[in-house]
Amino acid sequence: MSQGNKNARPEARLAKGFRDIEAAELGGLNEMLAKIREVYERYGFEALETPAIEYTDALGKFLPDQDRPNEGVFSFQDESDSGEGGQWMSLRYDLTAPLARYVAQNFQTLPKPFRRYAFGNVYRNEKPGPGRFRQFMQFDADTVGADSVAADAEMCMLAADTLEALGVDRTNFVIKVSSRKMLDGYREALGLVGEEHNNTWLTVMRGLDKFDRLGREQVELLLGPGRRDESGDYTPGAKLDAQSIKRLGQLLTLRLHVAVQAGVTGPVFNPLINTGQKSENTVRRTLTSTIASIMRDHVEEFHGRDVREIRVLEEGLRELEEMGALIAAAGYDDGRIIIDPSVVRGLEYYTGPVFEAELTFEVKGDDGKPVRFGSVGGGGRYDDLVARFTGQKVPATGFSIGVSRLQAALSLINAKKTQALGPVVVLVMDKAEVARYQQMTQSLRHAGIRAEMYLGSSGMKAQMKYADKRNSPCAIIQGSDERALAQVTIKDLIEGAKAAAAIKDNKEWKEARPAQFSVSEASLVEEVKKLIARHQG
Any idea what DSSP says for residue 431? Predict the structure, then answer.
């Protein structure tokens, strides 16, 4: 390095696709995680934490591109390992692949089925965009060792209960269910079976998975020649023929066809709009109870084959019917959970039922335009993932909430919610009396009140500005006059701000002295508790 660069200071900047998370958001995040954890534990899941880094070969073929280990994931070579160049290691892409490694490693000692939940950040080395980051949090629940579709149905119920626990009304979300076996049946009907078509089919699935975000027209470009996005970036397509593209496009919109048959008039999209003939719940029940038979008709109409000739497709439809029966028996067929063949899930490892949790309401964004969040979680059955390590099939199913995305949606729902109160701030009016101020602060803390003594070196005006920035409910002031009377002044910063907004001039301000009162030192804790209770109520 040249002498000119030796003393250069680094630029303070965030890595692209990452973000800092500040106290107010973290407070909401912790509340949200606690509610999710409570639901997951009520279902019998227990916590497990796995490292953020795994050996790359443990993620294996489920990486976005196995020929380039750093494509799609963040990878590096561990130079401390023996061997040429060291072993490749990767930041976890999701929480499922590390679970598969853990189960394989501890298979003999684990209870079967093994039910675990986990939450933490995952990392994607992908192009960031609005609302899309390279680091984000997921909260997963998985059942390993149960091959019954009852386990998959339970995951859907868990997803519904979790969203309700987080304050989402059941009319504002839907858990959509489909099956990879059904898609495998379509693959067979389209003549794309065989290893030579694996890459093409993976491209097809990733294209179909973007239906909710891009719509049918743009997805059909991904199934065909390819698509160029608004930034000019080009995504190669699957190069399917026009007839195959048409058939898959019709599959994606099949739910809309079923809704029309159920008696909905007018525009039909998510959320389903009822304009007269039948209630939305009736429509959604119809989607759950009749979709399999409609799909059979669709296969026979557009592929010219009896669905029973395509064994994997028939098996997938039977599983969906069985899940529908279990969902109805548990009382969740009221619109919360529906069968929807447009659900694909982009990852390759799913082998059976797949599901997505989707928010169906719209809110206004910062620009005043409507924003619809769509999918905030998903999952499915992955019976082959553990077998990569053990050579034995180990059935498994799971559900994952995109915590960061869901939190963003919930923050817009609760946009008018009051910001969480900060700590009470005890001002330092006389540096010779710091011990006295510290004693006041500790008395508040011992009473369970968040409190801090100002530790800077500024005067009263700057200390008050500091308390405002901390969103403090009040500031505690004791100068020499108060101290002589064994009193303190409590300045209610929230009421003070409201009163100040109505005061027109400095004279009026001096006369009003808004939201400020004196109490004895002995009653400080009691009076602060009353003040905080008023603002929290």
Answer: G
Strand partners, 447: none
Which of the listed ranges 62-66, 161-165, 231-235 does the model predict with the highest average pLDDT?
A: 161-165
In whole angstroms, what is the distance from residue 298 CA to residue 126 CA?
A: 36
Peptide bond into 271 cis (omega under 30): yes
Orientation angle between helical segments 254-261 and 280-303, nearest 10 degrees: 120
Structural domain of residue 474, as residue ranges? 424-536
Give the model confidence (pLDDT) of 410-461 as tens digits. 877 665 454 678 999 999 999 999 999 999 999 999 999 999 999 999 999 9
Residue 355 and residue 176 in contact, taking contact as beta carbons nearer than 8 Å: yes
**Alpha carbons 276 and 53: distance in angstroms, whole number:** 54
Task: Return the SS3 of 407.
Answer: helix
Residue among 183, 156, 174, 157 at smallest CA distance from 212: 174
State the DSSP H helix or E strand holding residue 152, giving kind and residue range, or none if neither: helix 149-165
Tokens of 322: 């069985």
Nearest one of 315, 296, 322 to 307, comparing CA atoms = 296
Dig out the tokens for 334 from the structure: 């009221």
The Cα 440–Cα 476 span in angstroms is 9
Query: Are 429 and 125 spatial neighbours (Cβ–Cβ below 8 Å)?
Result: no
CATH of the domain at 440: 3.40.50.800
Q: How many domains does the chain have?
A: 1
Contact 95, 400 (CB under 8 A): yes
For residue range 84-118, list pLDDT tens digits in order: 667 888 999 899 999 999 999 999 999 999 999 99
Whether residue 503 is contained in a domain is answered as yes
The tokens for 87 are 């072993």
274 found inside a domain: no
- The token pair at 414 is 């609760």
Tell me whether residue 492 is in a domain: yes
Q: Does 196 reside within a domain?
A: no
Q: Give the dihedral sign, CA 456/462/467/469.
A: negative
Q: How far apart are CA 274 and CA 439, in angstroms?
A: 63
- Residue 45: HSE in the Cβ half-sphere, 13 Å Cα cutoff: 27
> Going by DSSP bridges, is the β-strand pair 424-426/363-364 parallel, antiparallel, or unpaired?
unpaired
Over residues 257-285, the pLDDT tens digits come to 555 454 443 333 333 333 334 445 544 45
Q: Which helix (H) or strand (E) holds 274?
A: none
Q: What is the DSSP letter of 397?
A: E
In the chain, what is the straight-line distance between the N-terminal and C-terminal CA atoms, in Å?
Answer: 61
Which is nearest to 40 in space by CA: 169, 140, 182, 110? 140
* Residue in 207, 214, 306 with CA at minimum distance from that of residue 248: 207
Mapping DSSP to helix (H, G, I), strand (E, B) and coil, where does residue 477 land? strand
- Please give the Cα distance from 70 to 57 (Å, whole number): 12
b/e sequence 437-461, b meaning 16+ C-beta within 10 Å: beebbebbeeeebebbbbeeeeeee
